[in-house]
Design goal:
- The chain has 680 residues and is of the alpha/beta class.
- The chain contains eight helices and 38 strands.
- An eleven-stranded parallel β-sheet has the order 3-4-6-8-9-10-11-13-15-16-18, with no helix packed on it. Strands 20-26-25-22 form a four-stranded mixed β-sheet, with no helix packed on it.
- One of its GO terms (molecular function) is signaling adaptor activity.
Length: 680
């Protein structure tokens, strides 16, 4: 934003003779008597050079060139002109220390220097200060009641106190860093330029003689100029203005009004008869009434959703191109008179050149879905507005809304985000990977939160999910290898360094059996390779083959009852441990025969019991077998539910196999054997 320019004009030569008016008064705030024109009293070399060799002779402070400044010489100084370029120096002025020796100073020019602060507390007659384009961060004018002009454009001021400067007429602080400014004590202000600062508000209600106001490039949300009827120029562009208060005030002299790039929904220019320039582009205007502005020569109002505008017949012809104004409709027509709810004076008869629809009377017809329509609106005086409507059909389902589901793997491999339709569920992505960690799932927070349910949670907004991890403990340096001899002689476990093979132990022994080797499973599995490295704890199982009975050998197995005989047979045939035990009725020989076949296939003992529950012998042989799984043959009539319940209480799982009769039971036993891995 350009500052409002104030021509300085020819510098009024305030002669020493005028300064003589103050001579002899005996007033000298800093010192009485002679002082040396040297670095002691004027320590800034550039400032001293300017005082010693001013650009014009009449500005010489040391009139007799004796290197001393008398009281008379100092009191005669009314103007100091030390702008960069006004004097010859290799450096810029950083300080005007010594200025206090000139109590009658009225004008100071120090533009384009390197000043960071100014203190005029010893210069009470100061009227004008020109200090533009310095890095000023502070200035004290509280002791300068005669001040009329303060020109501080392009500095670094964050605050400014002008409450004691009631005679101030010109205030230029464009391009500083001000966040607030109080000018309520300056009723004579005519020109104010506070553009390009950080002001959020500015009260000019007490500045009734204001003619020029620049507040462009701030953060104002409102500006009330209803108390400033003498305004000739207003620059309020590039703020956050939602309103420009003019009230019922007439502005007979206002020629230029700039308010572009704001959020204005209304601009009233009807009481600005001499307006020549208007720029209100990039706002939220829906209408613009320029019918009372006959002197307009420049108008910029583009980038507004204008649907109607008026121009004065005598003003220069203008063309305005609006942006889209949105309205809803139902069916296939839209009545233009409905736009009068937004602009009461909208006149459908001024509409022509319709594109995107048919104009029949006051209605746009032939509409379907969402439609873009443009038309020309006759403003008057040959000026034309090109308006644009965005008509949204309410009978058409709105386009779906999509949200983004992002995945923060928190150190893991990357996972692409998903675009998900509102109300639908996101797809669970493949689990990321991370060295030294296991993936625990996706959660709603990086720490804590709840596990996200991809199947049951609809997406209703943008969503971030976070991977949770569990650190994998370091692999043990040693592993244990246990040897289960499965009824054979005991074999000690071995501790083995991870990655090294375990030593093959001596073969165990078992009466009546031949040792087949060490296997990875109790039944089945693969024979263990003792040359392979051990990577973790492992249990190996001995496999055995029963020896063939010696020719002519005979051993009788018997008991007092069929159940005791069963116990003797099982004890002799299965001295070790087994995964399975087969339980059948001792009173139902067909079931027992079927059970015997299954027991052989499973390499498991068969235990017979009565119908009332497990007898003592059956109970003892079940425990001796060490089995974890029981296969019960027959219905609860053959083997009671109480027997099955007792087996479960002993820690065994129970699988009952039965048919409607002995034949069906035999068939079911066959099927169960196939299911359990028996190769019949």
């Amino acid at each position: 934003m350009k500052p409002i320019s104030k021509p300085l004009g020819a510098l009024a030569a305030i002669s020493v003779a005028i300064g003589m008016l103050f001579a002899g008064t005996g007033t000298a705030f800093a010192a009485d008597g002679d002082i040396a024109l040297d670095a002691t009293n004027f320590p800034d070399s550039a400032f001293l050079t300017c005082l010693e060799n001013p650009s014009q002779s009449y500005l010489t402070v040391d009139k007799n060139h004796d290197g001393m400044l008398s009281t008379e010489e100092r009191n005669n100084v009314s103007t100091i002109k030390c702008n960069a370029g006004d004097f010859e120096s290799d450096t810029l002025i950083k300080s005007v220390e010594g200025i206090e020796y000139f109590p009658n100073l009225t004008q100071l020019f120090v533009t384009d220097n390197a000043l960071t602060s100014l203190d005029f507390s010893q210069n009470p007659k100061l009227e004008q200060v020109y200090a533009t384009n310095n890095p000023l961060t502070s200035i004290d004018v509280t002791k300068n009641p005669e001040l009329t002009g303060l020109y501080l454009t392009q500095n670094k001021l964050t605050s400014l106190d002008v409450s004691n400067n009631s005679k101030l007429t010109d205030l230029y602080v464009h391009s500083n860093q001000l966040t607030n400014l109080d000018i309520s004590h300056n009723p004579r202000l005519e020109e104010v330029d506070v553009g390009d600062n950080a002001l959020t508000s500015l009260d000019v209600s007490g500045n009734t003689v204001l003619t020029s106001l620049n507040v462009a490039g701030n953060a104002l949300s409102s500006l009330d100029i209803s108390h400033n009827p003498r305004l000739e120029e207003v620059r309020a562009e590039e703020n956050n203005l939602t309103s420009l208060g003019t009230g019922s005030t007439t502005y007979p002299s206002l020629a230029k009004l700039y308010g572009y790039r704001n959020q204005l929904s209304d601009v009233d220019t009807t009481r600005m008869p001499n307006l020549t320039e208007l720029d209100v582009a990039h706002n939220q205007l829906s209408s613009l009434d320029l019918s009372q502005n006959s002197q307009l020569r420049y108008v910029s109002a583009g980038s507004n959703a204008l649907i109607a505008a008026k121009a004065n017949e005598n003003a220069r012809t203008v063309t305005i191109n609006g942006t889209q104004f949105e309205r809803h409709y139902k069916g296939t027509t839209f009545d233009l008179t409905s736009l009068q709810s937004a602009v009461p004076w909208f006149d459908p008869s001024q509409v022509s050149n319709v594109e995107g629809a048919n104009l029949e009377g006051t209605s746009l017809t032939g509409l379907q879905g969402d439609v873009d329509v443009s038309y020309s609106y006759a403003m008057g005086g040959g000026s034309t507005l090109t308006a644009h409507l965005r008509l949204i059909g309410d009978d058409v389902p709105p386009a779906p809304t999509y949200f983004t589901v992002s995945f923060d793997t928190r150190g893991g491999s990357s996972v692409e985000s998903q675009s998900v339709e509102s109300g639908k569920t996101a797809s669970e992505p493949a689990a990321p990977s991370r060295d030294g960690y296991t993936f625990d799932g996706w959660y709603t927070a990086a720490s804590g939160g709840s596990r996200y349910d991809f199947d049951a949670t609809p997406v209703t907004g943008d969503l971030a999910l976070y991977a949770h991890w569990t650190e994998v403990p370091p692999a043990p340096s040693h592993a244990t290898v246990w040897f289960d001899s499965v009824g054979g002689s005991s074999v000690s476990s071995q501790s083995v360094e991870v990655g090294k093979p375990v030593s093959r132990p001596a073969d165990p022994s078992r009466d009546g059996y031949v040792f087949d080797g060490w296997y990875t499973e109790r039944t089945g599995g693969e024979e263990y390779d003792f040359s392979a490295p051990v990577n973790g704890n492992v249990t190996l199982y001995a496999h055995w083959t029963r020896k063939q009975a010696e020719k002519g050998a005979l051993k009788r197995l018997a008991g007092a009852t069929r159940y005791e005989t069963m116990g003797a047979v099982v004890s002799a045939g299965f001295p070790g441990r087994s995964e399975y035990v087969v339980v059948a009725s001792g009173d139902n020989f067909p079931d027992a025969l079927s059970a015997s076949s299954l027991a052989g296939g499973l390499k498991a003992p068969i235990v017979l019991t009565g119908s009332g529950g497990l007898n003592a012998v059956a109970r003892e042989r079940v425990r001796a077998s060490g089995a974890s799984k029981a296969v019960v043959i027959g219905s609860t009539v053959a083997v009671s539910a109480a027997a099955a319940s007792e087996l479960r209480s002993m820690g065994l799982s129970v699988d009952r196999i039965q048919g409607s009769n002995r034949y069906d039971t035999n068939v079911e036993v066959y099927k169960a054997g196939r299911r359990l891995g028996v190769d019949w």
